[in-house]
Amino acid sequence: MCVDPKEKIACRAAKEISSGQVINLGIGIPTLIPTFLSSDISVTFHSENGIIGAGGFSRSGEADRNLIDAGGTYISTVPGAAFCDSSLSFALIRGGRLDLSFLGALELSEKGDLANWIIPGKFAPGIGGAMELAQKARRLVITTTHTTSKGAPKILRSCKLPLTAPNCVDLIITELAVIRVSSAGLVLEEIALETDLESVVRLTDAPLSVSDNLSTF
Amino acid sequence: MCVDPKEKIACRAAKEISSGQVINLGIGIPTLIPTFLSSDISVTFHSENGIIGAGGFSRSGEADRNLIDAGGTYISTVPGAAFCDSSLSFALIRGGRLDLSFLGALELSEKGDLANWIIPGKFAPGIGGAMELAQKARRLVITTTHTTSKGAPKILRSCKLPLTAPNCVDLIITELAVIRVSSAGLVLEEIALETDLESVVRLTDAPLSVSDNLSTF
Amino acid sequence: MIDKVTTIDNALRGVTDGQVVMVGGFGVPGTPFLLIESLLRLNFVELTLIKNEANEAGLGVSKLIEEGRVKRLITSHLGLNGTVISMMNAEDITVDFFPQGILAEKIRAGGAGLLGIVTDIGIDTILRQGKQIIKLDSGEGIVEPALRADIALVHAARADRAGNLVYEKSARNFNPLMATAADLVVAEAELIVEVGEIPPDQIHTPGAFVDHVIKIEELLPEYGVLQHHVR
Amino acid sequence: MIDKVTTIDNALRGVTDGQVVMVGGFGVPGTPFLLIESLLRLNFVELTLIKNEANEAGLGVSKLIEEGRVKRLITSHLGLNGTVISMMNAEDITVDFFPQGILAEKIRAGGAGLLGIVTDIGIDTILRQGKQIIKLDSGEGIVEPALRADIALVHAARADRAGNLVYEKSARNFNPLMATAADLVVAEAELIVEVGEIPPDQIHTPGAFVDHVIKIEELLPEYGVLQHHVR
């Protein structure tokens, strides 16, 4: 079903969601997650531009000029949705009412540090909501390709880039692996059918302990 | 027209109001002011419990259980009124959008200090909105009897009671006098028809300079 | 959609003695009398109460205080409640006073996940005593830490089953602030409607902030007009 | 009642070069394109601009920036505007970045007459550099001073003649915050109704915060759907 690497990640990420949660989807891979959500799961999607109860993308011709998500894409809302201003929208995040946040990553460390907002001198578009989401979501799941476009590991002993937040990541989902961040370091929980343990270890620049219950996905 | 001392004060205070102003009325004498407002004056009354556009008191049988002013009295609203929460209500005060505030006083000083919230050991009901109103209204007019119920002056060289705010008073209106607070001290601008200069000076425990344009009211 | 409408006993199941409780309302409007009655009935003690005022003697939170259930009250003004003032003077209860809008901002800051606010209100008065004072370019300010509670009790005119709330007139006051600032947020509502019936632009408190909604089956007399406040 | 509906030129009469201007909007929704066009037309320069983002190249505030009218931009994210990022990298404009919700809180604090807020967002990152750090019982926090402007330009779906504003859907965003945080607040509105037509419980920005209201006679194409953002 999920063959494209990004779709595979999103498909696996959807399984982290339980009914009743309030969830924020970062830009990129996270926006693909709702497609893979089981229809018996009922959650509330939060968009940091002031939408609590975001729905799917609007089809061409149905876009509402007053209704976009934080990435700029035209969306719909679900029954029970509420609009709010930017201060209340982030109050929800920082105040502890956001159950789950999915974000992308440039670098991740074995301690669960996340770097995803700046590459000094190269990429500095600003901070946006990333720091607040990373630091304050009750649970942070990173969805990212396992390596950079040049094949370099993104999961490192320690991040070289300026951090978005230290010690914030709970789970890392890549096209190759599902890795849990524990107080003792990274634990490989699941491995993709398309790869093997040796490849995952080689493409990860931090120690990985293998779960006793290692499974495939 | 205005014979009762409190009504005389309120009647004179109404003349300080100009059209377009946003105004907060403290409890006591200030609540009498709207009665004396000329019908060609259009202002917005703010009540700190979240009403911008408060109207007159509700008559018996017309009281709305959800609509009181900050003093607890059932009121109405005017067309164009808005309700807001307590944070936005005080944002209006502290943010500089309150043009005029009328408050009562326990003590006043020649520098324009106001004490009206506590008599240590005797009267300490709390702070309420008084400090924010005193400190942040663009113009603060004090409406008060000239002396305490025991006849002691309320206008002093310096306040003995803990201050509500220092250097905040613009104008003092009593049943005997209208006194402007200037950087050089207190200036007697108007004197009541019912009294004389000697009495005002005797009942005021701070130096008063008399305006060149001293008039009566 | 998770239906947040439940029973009072279920909603208050997690409450324990000694907790910090925020209660909405400014006078009668917006005071959740039904939920306050339930706190009384369930016999919680040693509570810390956060409320704008203490209602009036014999009414609302004053009942909790008069029955000795409240050890500390964080409030703004008790001018209409001589009974609680007497209890404060007799040291039967500890009272912390804040300027009304600063109390609102402290609660709001708690709800917004801030550590605190910096204000110049009271900076030249006795209010600065014992407070952390810092210097900014705009002047000297008092640091006021954010205020959160274990539980917030709020009163809404309308709620939908997703917990979206709408307040009415001056009954809004502290309710939307408190509804963001507690680990457990319980709202009582005069009317409960189906999800989708409240236009999303008209919602005052989004349901994501609310844990439980209680339907007020019948308005207690306390919700009515206090005749002694009719001019 | 003072009728706050006026002409653009009258509303912007007090604006001068070098002022600090807040502009509402998050992407297209809520961006006051008509008022921005007016700033362009009136040739103001050396402006400091406060906006969530810089719109996209060739659109909205990006036009002001591209024409060299803005010396400093206080913002959160420029991801959709490579042109302004290039200008920033070429040091043609100074850009100050803040976490989005902290930018919102700084503006809100300005509107609420606070000196600042204290936050732990970014406390363990490079964001702490050069900031005032204080200790509270709840931990170490960054002091973020309040942000105010000389003028705020906001976009509303509806306004009444008293200046009461209602925003629509995701066009609300920073508008209600900025509408409290400037010495001169100018709102453009798609629809202007008579006083009393907006239910008082549904008003997002009370008219007391608003100085002038401008009627948008005809929506410019900029207000429409950006087809490249339709999936």
What secondary-structure arrangement, pairings included, does this model have?
The complex is a heterotetramer, with two copies of chain A (217 residues) and two copies of chain C (231 residues).
Chain A: H1 5-14, E1 22-25, E2 44-47, E3 51-57, E4 75-83, H2 86-94, E5 100-103, E6 107-109, E7 114-115, H3 130-136, E8 140-143, E9 155-156, E10 171-173, E11 177-182, E12 185-191, H4 197-202, E13 208-216
Parallel strand pairs in A: 1-2, 1-5, 5-8, 6-9, 8-10, 12-13
Antiparallel strand pairs in A: 2-3, 3-4, 6-7, 10-11, 11-12
Chain C: H1 8-11, E1 20-23, H2 33-41, E2 47-50, H3 61-66, E3 70-75, H4 82-89, E4 94-97, H5 100-111, E5 116-119, E6 132-136, E7 139-145, E8 149-160, E9 165-166, H6 175-178, E10 182-193, E11 212-215
Parallel strand pairs in C: 1-2, 1-8, 2-3, 3-4, 8-10, 10-11
Antiparallel strand pairs in C: 5-7, 6-7, 8-9
Question: How would you explain this protein's 3D organization?
Answer:
The complex is a heterotetramer, with two copies of chain A (217 residues) and two copies of chain C (231 residues). Chain A has 217 residues and is of the alpha/beta class. Chain A has a ten-stranded mixed beta sheet. Chain A contains four helices and 13 strands. Chain A is globular. Chain C is of the alpha/beta class and 231 residues long. Chain C has a single domain (8-114, 147-216), classed as Glutaconate Coenzyme A-transferase (3-Layer(aba) Sandwich), CATH 3.40.1080. Chain C contains six helices and eleven strands. In chain C, β1 (20-23), α2 and β2 form a beta-alpha-beta unit. The N and C termini of chain C lie far apart (47 Å). The model of chain C has no long low-confidence stretch (mean pLDDT 97). At the A-D interface, α2 and α3 of A face α5 and α6 of D. β5 of chain C pairs antiparallel with β5 of chain D, so a sheet runs across the interface.
